[in-house]
Structure formats: structure tokens, C-alpha cells
Amino acid sequence: MRRRGVVLSLLALIVTAVSVPTAAAADGTKYVAMGSSFAAGPGIPSLQPGSPSVCARSDHNYPSVLAAQLGLALTDVSCSGATTANILDSGQAGLPPQIQAVTPDTRLVTATIGGNDVNYIGSLNTYSCQTSGRTGCGTVDQNAINATFGVLQSRLENVANAVRQRAPQAKMVFVEYLSIVPTAVACDGVPLTREQLAFEHSIALRLADSTRAAALSTGSTVVEVTPASRGHDACSATPWVEKYTVPSGRTPYHPNEAGMNAVARLVRTALTR
């Protein structure tokens, strides 16, 4: 009954939603956004006023868009480069762990997390650097990545359980990562061999599977962004993510404005089910 009440209150907000700045929703339902760069939105203008520069937190990331649409009081602690450990145990660059933003009055929590645990974007950048013929690219330890997948689900479950402990009435929502690369053949601006592409696609699938399993085991909601965004990868005609080769100021292999808007729509739809 408690979770049903939370859903009904969110539904009421959706029915009466208006596009207002997040700051104007100070009396709205408290919403905490946690996660890595796919929540923070590096490279998307403009930075959230007063936010730590190290996090590269955009005022047009999906938490900001969602909060504005639904009139939610947003506390955004997402931060580029974050891992599950940065949510639960140790913050980045002197910041507190993200979980500390969750308080008993929180009613909605979203988290896009786990990609950095398994070096998802890092390996994409390394492989693209290597295939481009650049130097100083580093290496990808596939064995270490595969080993981390063995514990990733439990790490994600720990995130959901920590939210429940701190905010028993909060609705916990895992938001998957956008699809980044196509499944078969790369394109100009996405320099990956077939073998590299296959490995990166496997990371995307296993990351989504781990997220769904963690959501199921903890009674959380999962927004299945990965399959929903296929056909909008970096090589598509309507990309929701950037290529490896990007204009100045943009971040390779990360969401663009269209991607963040799409994720916000997907989360909003999930909240109405």
C-alpha cells in the first residue's frame, strides 16, 4: 500500500504537470537523481548552476528534464565517472557519497550506474583510440571486465537496498544506459573493429541484464532504455549519443540533448504504468 500511494502521488503530478524550472518546484515531491555521466550529461549545455565542475552536470540532463515536467523538487547528485562505490561508500573529488542525498522525505530516486564499474565507456574510448592509430591509448583488460560482471548485480542491489533503508517510502527506479554503438558494423566517427564492436555490444547487453536482475530482486522499477534506444546509436540517422569524433565541447560516446529528452520520456512513461 505504501508503494501504491507513492505511485498514485506521482501519477497526480503527471496529470497536472507543467514545464517549470526545477528551482520553482521547492514544495514538490523530493526527487533524488544518482548515477554516472549518463545521468549527469557532460558536454550538454549548460552546467547546473553551483554544481561541482568535476561532475559536468548539465541542466538539460534527464533528471532536470523530468523534474521540470513533473514539478518535482530535484536533488541531483549524479557525477561523471561515478561507480557504485561512489554512490555508497566514497564520493568523488571530496564530495560525499551520493546516497547521503537520500533522506526520509525522498519519494523518488533514479540511478543510472554500473557502466564505470565495468569500464564500459573507458573501453570504448580505448579501442577507438587504438583503431584510429593514435598513441598512448592504454589497453582494455577484458578479463577484469568479465570478472566485475560477476559482482555487478549485487553492487546494484546494494544501491537499491541502501535507498530503501534511508527512504522507505521512496520509489526506486534503475534507468539503463542508452545504446551507444550498432550491433554489426561501425561507421565513420566510430572507429571500432568487428571484434571490438562485438565485445562492446556484449558489455551493453550484460550491463542491462544485471540492472534488470537487480531491479527484480529488490522490488525496484527498471526503465529499459537499452532496447528502447536501439536504432538511435551513434551511427544512426537520429542518434541519441555522440560518436567518438565530436565537435568541440561535446563528450565522446555520451548522450546528446535528444538522448536525454528520450530518457526523460521513457522514465515518465514507466512512472505511469
Automatic annotation (TrEMBL):
Q: What keywords would UniProt list here?
A: Disulfide bond, Hydrolase, Signal
Mind telling me what this protein is named?
Answer: GDSL-like Lipase/Acylhydrolase family protein
Q: Where is the active site?
A: S37 (nucleophile), H254
Occurrences of domain SGNH hydrolase-type esterase (ranges): 33-260
Organism in which the protein naturally occurs: Amycolatopsis sacchari
Q: What's a Pfam family this protein contains?
A: Lipase_GDSL_2
The superkingdom listed in its UniProt entry is Bacteria
Coiled-coil regions listed: none
Instruction: Give disulfide pairs as residue numbers.
Output: C55-C79, C129-C137, C187-C235
Which terms under GO biological process does the entry name?
triglyceride catabolic process
Can you name one GO molecular function term for this protein? triacylglycerol lipase activity
